[in-house]
Amino acid sequence: MHDPEFLLAALKSMLKERRIGYAALAAELDVSLLTVKRTLNKAAVPLDRLLEICRIAKIDFAELVERAAAIKPRHTFFDAKQDELFTRCPPMLTYFTALQSGQSPADIAKQFHLMSASTTRYLDALAGVGLVKVTGSGTWIEVESLMEPPVGFSPGSSTLARLSAAFLTSVVERVVAAASRHDADFSLLKPLRLSERQYRQMTGELYDVVNRYSFLSESVGFAADEDERPQWQLAIAASLADRTSDPESAIRNLKPNEAT
């Protein structure tokens, strides 16, 4: 894959590996921090700027292209023990997601006013089910995520069921049935007559699209406080049509003047 988005994702990943952040890049490039943020959050970086960043970070351009070409955006799924932890303690998933976004335990503790004992409980529980590796102690803690993004839930997940029910209810209230909508809100309901093969092909294509953008979402390579992109929620669901789900639409004898 040589798409600009994956080249940029590979660049950010390699910068993160070298512990080079926006501020350091801005200083080396002699531009403002805002300029660097805007540059690295565009769909593509100009070639001259890309080569300059590679020079500063000592990244071989051929290696960058190779890394981008090797990107295969397939989901990693939580296992049964991890899913059970998130079901038993929902804040655990939010904490893990914050770590995945690049926030440190100290960042999270400061943002949510956590006591050190709570931070320890979060990290011990996540480490206990193989989601993170924790090294160090006290004020110096290093946390390594053991899950490659993008990350998702397997079919039958109890956490997925809980999140889906809450989100779909929210979508109906905020998007479908709302009197006024945000200009970026989107909903689509489309009855389709397709063969089983066509249906499987369509859902497979949708799955690939979501995987692609999930990778771009979760593999940004910088801490959350440096990521200015808005966060969106996406739900896609499909099933065999159930005519009994909308009894009001069933064909029937009409009463006088009912249609006028």
TrEMBL record:
Leader sequence segment: none
GO molecular function terms listed in the Swiss-Prot or TrEMBL record: DNA binding
Keywords for the protein's UniProt record, in alphabetical order: DNA-binding
InterPro entries hit by this protein: Cro/C1-type_HTH, Lambda_DNA-bd_dom_sf, WH-like_DNA-bd_sf
Domain of life: Bacteria
Pfam families to which the protein is assigned, alphabetical: HTH_26
Domain HTH cro/C1-type: start-end pairs: 11-67
Designated name of the protein: Cro/C1-type HTH DNA-binding domain-containing protein
